[in-house]
Amino acid sequence: MTEGNFVDYVKIYAASGNGGKGSAHLHREKYIAKGGPDGGDGGRGGHVYVRGDKNLWTLHHLKFGKHIKAGHGGDGGSSRSTGADGEDVYIDVPLGTVVKHKETGVVIFEITEDSEQKILAEGGKGGLGNWHFRSSTNQTPRYAQPGLPGEEIDVIIELKVLADVGLVGFPNAGKSTLLSVITAAKPKIANYPFTTLKPNLGIVPYRDFRSFVMADIPGIIEGAAEGKGLGHYFLRHIERNSILLFLIPADTDDIKKEYEILLDELRRYNPELLDKDQLIAISKSDMLDEELKTEIKQQLDKELGNVDYLFISSVAQLGLTELKDRLWDLLNK
To answer: Where does GTP bind (predicted)?
Structure first.
């Protein structure tokens, strides 16, 4: 999928159908001059549903159809016949989609399972026919209920990428390169910051035909929690990942400091992110000789405490099997 086709934020106007009118018909038949009331009920208006689809990865299909309307209910007829229900409309979305009220920003619901469906706008109830209003004192009611109007709602539909492993790092840390090497994904790679502007997903093949999903997400910078750089655009995609893989280049001046800046941005955005399992990968480690690597290890053992780390190189294919093993163990511990 090209980067331009990845859409993770759309505004939608949804309107459910109006309920049909009840009928005020009076029964008429040969030899029955004054039959009683036999008006049927109106049909209900169509609902607008949001439905999860595991085969979708983006909201691109909603980009050009932002006005969604369900069908109106049919009117009641004679012989107590009920009007047809209005046609329901389904908005299919990827798993991990959040639906928010446009004005208030309040989350209405989220979709996390395949075929899960929730009503976004409920169709209006159909009106009752005059059959329901007959009584001993009013045997020929000539009135019926109108149908109730449907609902209208403006919402924001937002995708938070669902992946097993989320890559966290500064721009140019080598996230896209790693994803391109250990998965079949083909993200855009270049030697400048913010090459990645949209999340990329890749399936990492593992032993015995098993696999897990990794997400390369736009790079973080200091102040991202306040919306600097790609800010919240990046951070909301991290919320749905089981493991955070911090990618820090080996040529960084201070590995511990860079890790702490990344942690701080996550903490300021959502402290719950720090409860996830973490692993640090020192990327571009093919630039290090054994002596320098040993020196960095000794320093990191002192500074990082219990945080697990390893050295990798995507270009030289170093440490990638060990990385997969560590990630698999964390996912299945």
So the answer is: 169-176, 194-198, 216-219, 283-286, 313-315
- Domain of 272? 165-332
User: Is residue 306 pLDDT above 90, yes or no?
Assistant: no
Say if strands 277-283 and 9-15 run parallel, antiparallel, or are unpaired: unpaired
Torsion of CA 272, 193, 218, 305, to 10 degrees: -30
150: CB partners within 8 A, 6+ apart: 15, 16, 17, 18, 19, 45, 46, 70, 72, 121, 122, 123, 124
**Which residue ranges are tagged as binding site for Mg(2+)?**
176, 196
Residues annotated as binding site? 169-176, 194-198, 216-219, 283-286, 313-315
Which has more pLDDT, 194 or 276?
Answer: 276
User: Binding site membership for GTP: which residues?
Assistant: 169-176, 194-198, 216-219, 283-286, 313-315
Domain boundary among 160, 186, 204: 160
Residue 108 and residue 256: Cα distance in Å, rounded? Answer: 40
Element (H, E) at 328: helix 320-331
Task: Give 129 or 299, the one with higher predicted confidence.
Answer: 129
- Domain end residue (candidates: 129, 160, 191): 160
**pTM (predicted TM-score):** 0.69
If asked whether residues 201 and 326 sit together in one domain, one would say yes
pLDDT tier, 189 (very low <50, low <70, confident <90, very high otherwise): very low
pLDDT per position as a tens digit, 247-264: 999 888 888 898 998 888
